[in-house]
């Protein structure tokens, strides 16, 4: 905690912290965005200061230290009206989006966005897994025809989904060819681009000031 404000601790990357930052911005939460280097992370992990040795870390005003990105965003979503557990259908769609997002993350598709050199096998796997994710999101949006992913209001699902597309397909800070490949995939499904524009319009100031990170 810094200056009586909650603190979000993460690397100078979008990745797992980006959806949380989107939510905090949209909710108007005054917080400290603490960026740490990988060396700092190693030292903090070795010292035992990080629960389970992980970031992102959310430090509450009363000193609680909370980890696990999707647990954090669900908590904040409930607190600020972006995750309504009483709406069973909406909750299912939000949880489905988060599980589908985890499938993409666990496929290590992001690895080729960060490392200096990648094998053809790694590049092909990243391309395939991103295309799978994009196809699943597009199919769900097409089936229901809603303004946002889980209905006609913004939820944590929208923050998570938009973050993937911004980092992997619309990322001017990363000049690797895989970004252009992902952008071409999105171009084949206009409903994704249209959806992303709707969500971005809800986050205008945040999008304008969002850091220039490779992923």
Explain what you see.
The chain has 215 residues and is an alpha+beta fold. The protein has helices at residues 18-27, 38-47, 69-80, 88-106, 111-114, 120-144, 156-168, 177-187, 190-201, 204-209; strands at residues 7-10, 32-35, 57-59, 65-67. A 4-stranded mixed sheet has the order 2-1-3-4. The protein starts with 6 loop residues before the first strand and ends in a 6-residue tail after the last helix. The mean pLDDT is 94.
> What's the story with the biggest beta sheet?
4 strands, mixed
The strand order across the widest sheet is 2-1-3-4
SS element count, helices: 10
The assigned structural class equals alpha+beta
Instruction: Enumerate the spans where pLDDT stays under 50 for 5 or more consecutive residues.
Output: none
Specify the helix fraction band.
55-70%
One letter per element, helices H and strands E, the order comes to EHEHEEHHHHHHHH
Overall strand count: 4
Mean pLDDT: 94
Estimate what percentage of residues fall within beta strands.
Answer: 5-15%
Shape: globular
Query: Span from first to last CA?
Result: 26 Å
Radius of gyration: 17 Å
């Amino acid at each position: 905690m810094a200056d009586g404000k909650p603190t979000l601790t993460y690397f100078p990357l979008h990745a797992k912290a980006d959806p949380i930052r989107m939510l905090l911005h949209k909710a108007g939460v005054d917080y400290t965005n603490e960026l740490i280097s990988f060396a700092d992370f190693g030292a903090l992990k070795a010292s035992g200061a990080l629960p389970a040795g992980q970031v992102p870390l959310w430090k509450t005003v009363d000193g609680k230290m909370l980890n696990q990105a999707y647990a954090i965003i669900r908590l904040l979503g409930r607190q600020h009206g972006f995750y309504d557990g009483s709406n069973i259908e909406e909750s299912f769609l939000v949880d489905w989006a988060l599980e589908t997002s985890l499938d993409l993350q666990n496929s290590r598709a992001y690895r080729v966005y960060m490392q200096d050199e990648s094998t053809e096998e790694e590049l092909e796997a990243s391309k395939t897994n991103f295309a799978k994710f994009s196809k699943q999101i597009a199919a769900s949006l097409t089936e229901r025809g809603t303004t946002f992913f889980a209905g006609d209001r913004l939820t944590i699902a929208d923050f998570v989904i938009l973050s993937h597309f911004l980092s992997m397909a619309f990322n001017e800070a990363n000049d690797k060819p895989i970004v252009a490949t992902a952008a071409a995939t999105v171009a084949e499904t206009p409903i994704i681009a249209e959806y992303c524009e709707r969500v971005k319009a809800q986050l205008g100031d945040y999008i304008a000031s969002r850091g220039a990170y490779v992923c």
